[in-house]
Write a structure and sequence with these properties.
With 173 residues, this protein is mainly alpha-helical. It has one domain. Helix content is 63%, strand content 5%. The protein is built from seven helices and three strands, in the order αββαααααβα. A three-stranded antiparallel β-sheet has the order 1-2-3. A hairpin with a 2-residue loop joins strand 1 and strand 2. It is globular.
């Protein structure tokens, strides 16, 4: 059981990292959404002018939320960027593994809800620009469209979160 636990956690973390940085969550044309695009939009300023941190009031107004709520959402997504890496801590600490696996799984579910339903209404457009950026060198992140504009990265996030969660819950033996 110990080997299975380690394999589940490691494979889950690798899938989460691949889904965050290597494979695009969604996209079209020369643009693809991934963790790389989110880093650029948050700290440098990407496709839409100033960075999210430099001008939060504009983006919060566009989203139709208060600035403090915009920062909360931004904080959740920043934690998501390191969640795949911190899933590996689940090898030593069960609680940390479960928490970061749930974050990865939650963001994966969020993107599927974002694409297949209209629950979020106007916020969907705002979340769409959070991760959107140009492909680096014309190929990174890899956009493998599996239907309805959603990329393979969202399913890697789901799988990585689920595998990491199961692996973190299993006993160490």
């Amino acid at each position: 059981m110990g080997v299975a636990r380690v394999l589940l956690i490691v494979i889950g973390a690798v899938c989460a990292i691949l889904g965050t940085y290597i494979f695009a969550l969604y996209g079209g044309g020369p643009y693809a959404a991934s963790g790389i695009g989110f880093i650029i939009n948050t700290f440098v300023g990407g496709l839409f002018g100033p960075s999210f941190i430099a001008d939060p009031a504009t983006y919060a107004g566009f989203a139709g939320v208060e600035v403090w709520l915009f920062f909360v959402i931004l904080g959740v997504f920043i934690v998501f960027l390191v969640a795949g890496i911190l899933q590996l801590v689940g090898l030593k600490s069960r609680v940390v593994g479960v928490i970061f696996s749930l974050i990865t799984l939650g963001v994966g579910i969020f993107f599927l809800i974002f694409f297949y339903t209209d629950i979020l209404g106007g916020l969907s457009g705002t979340f769409a620009i959070f991760f959107l950026g140009e492909q680096i060198g014309g190929f990174l992140p890899l956009l493998i469209d599996i239907g309805d504009g959603i990329g393979l990265g969202a399913f890697f996030l789901l799988g990585g979160g689920a595998l990491g969660l199961v692996g973190s819950i299993l006993p160490k033996d």
